[in-house]
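[Backbone geometry]
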Amino acid sequence: MEVIFILIGASFSVALGFLIAFLFSVKKGQFDDQETPAIRMLFDDEIKK
């Protein structure tokens, strides 16, 4: 029965870590532009001489 309390605490710790990582990435702008990366491969590269 004591193991379940340890597992619940560990799962809350992992969930909190993922929440902090998500909020950090939103704050840094990782999810600002979601369209350009999907169509970036369709753009022609500039010809270098």
Summary: Residues 8 and 14 are 10 Å apart (CA to CA). The longest helix spans residues 2-27.
